Amino acid sequence: MSMKACRSQTFVILYRHVEIVAELNRDGKMLSRFEKYLRHGFYPFYTTETEQNYLVRVNNLITSVIDYDVPAVERVEYETLRKAKHLLNLVGGGVGVRVWICRRGVR
To answer: Where are the domains of the chain?
Structure first.
């Protein structure tokens, strides 16, 4: 897309946003669609499968990144990878979980 076309599209969105939203929300289901999008649609893949299978795929993706991609780019010990997985499990597992991180040997 050329810079001129990009600017043209930006202009349309900025100045016609009220009309665009009204058209998208004609049936009144925009909020429920957005909530579904937040649960299922913004990861590297979109699923029409069951939600349970989707969460398994997301978990597998995260595990692959930690197990293979991170060590390929950075020298990291197995124990550090295990701790990273545990930290992600804590952060993603529940609302209201506070994670305290401290540096050893720093006073």
So the answer is: 1-34, 43-93
